[in-house]
Amino acid sequence: MSISDEFAFIKDIQPDRLFHAEKVVGIGDDAAIIGVEEGFEKIVCVDTMVEGVHFTRETMKPFDIGYKALAANISDVAAMGGYPLYYLVSITIPKSWTQEELKSIYDGMKSLGEQYEMDLIGGDTTSGKTMVLSVFVIGKVENSKRLLRSNARVGDVMFVSGTVGDAAGGLDILLHNKNADKFETLVESHQRPKPQVTLGRILSKFERVSLNDVSDGLASELLEIAEASQVDIFINKETIPISEDLQRYDADNALKWALTGGEDFELVGSIPETDWAKLEKECLIAGMKITKIGTVASGEGKAFIKSYNGAVQELKKEGYNHFNRG
Ligand SMILES: Nc1ncnc2c1ncn2[C@@H]1O[C@H](COP(=O)(O)OP(=O)(O)O)[C@@H](O)[C@H]1O
Ligand SMILES: Cc1ncc(C[n+]2csc(CCOP(=O)(O)OP(=O)(O)O)c2C)c(N)n1
Ligand SMILES: [Mg+2]
Ligand SMILES: [Mg+2]
Ligand SMILES: [Mg+2]
């Protein structure tokens, strides 16, 4: 059954309780109101998922679409070192989507939102030809904690969390109907990415960190840091963390996907050399994988990849680009 009434739909998706009830006016008025906590600044971001661009009916179930749209935004909060608090949802619904499917999209957001005690506090609903889901997230971070892309300095260590390329491998499996049951971890990386909030919080305790999350691909994110900081970045090819599953699935494409696949939602950044051992230890204690992949050198915003055999190649912004899909 397709959705028959906008107002009944809004009632249906309204949460029955709020985690931060004392601080907000949520769904039900013209706009939401959120309290401002002493000692913190707000973080705000929005990311959109469009049918045919970010997902198809074949690659993502409705639950996954909701889950991933919220995850992408939580990941941006993580990349600023903050905690996510609230979200708003703008949804454009084509007639062909059933009420159950729409409910599943919201259930996907709810299941991840609950993990972080986030409240759904508003949004907007329209009909339209293509499913478009925009999620807005509000988070917080302590005053003056700024994990900016422009914070990298000469001599810093470059690091990345987890493994990269898995989400693109998962997408390849889904698009080409290949062995989805044999490579569940890759498929899951694509459909249910895990935002790295805990790592962002660990990083926020350090003096100076540059940070970015991997949405468009490692190469693109490194270049964003290099450009914002006006430095050059050198990474070592053999240190890029590629999972065994990805290697097993397609060894030939693994490095390409790691560099340009995108949607891994891992954190990539730099930290002073003197803080690296401490960061490594804290991640070990927290059970999180973090890998040194290179160093920061003087320069004007380029990134290079080096091999053990000495070959050096310049990285290009070959990650996902909405208007330049070659
Ligand atoms: N249409 C837009 N209008 C205003 N700001 C935008 C728009 N699109 C992106 N931005 C801003 O540009 C920056 C980079 O965006 P984006 O590449 O989407 O970042 P991310 O990959 O972290 O989501 C962000 O600060 C974002 O808020
Ligand atoms: C059907 C399908 N084709 C291709 C992709 C790959 N893809 C789509 S958007 C994107 C990049 C991330 O999305 P974007 O809107 O650029 O997010 P942002 O950088 O703003 O976080 C990638 C890798 C996909 N997820 N699904
Ligand atoms: Mg974005
Ligand atoms: Mg980002
Ligand atoms: Mg992008």
Q: What topology emerges from the helices and strands here?
A:
Layout: H1 6-13, E1 24-25, E2 33-34, E3 40-50, H2 62-78, E4 83-93, H3 99-115, E5 119-127, E6 132-142, E7 157-161, H4 166-175, H5 184-191, H6 197-204, E8 210-213, H7 218-229, E9 231-236, H8 244-260, E10 267-271, H9 273-285, E11 290-298, E12 303-306, E13 312-314
Parallel strand pairs: 4-5, 9-12
Antiparallel strand pairs: 1-2, 3-6, 4-6, 7-10, 7-11, 8-10, 9-11, 12-13
Helix pairs in contact: 2-3, 2-6, 4-5, 4-8
Bound molecules: adenosine-5'-diphosphate, thiamine diphosphate and magnesium ion (3 copies).
One magnesium ion (MG) binds at residues 215-216, 320.
Tell me what you see in this structure.
The protein is 34% helix and 25% strand. It is built from 9 helices and 13 strands. The strands form 3 sheets. The protein has a 7-stranded mixed β-sheet. Strand 1 and strand 2 form a beta hairpin. Helix 4 packs across helix 8.
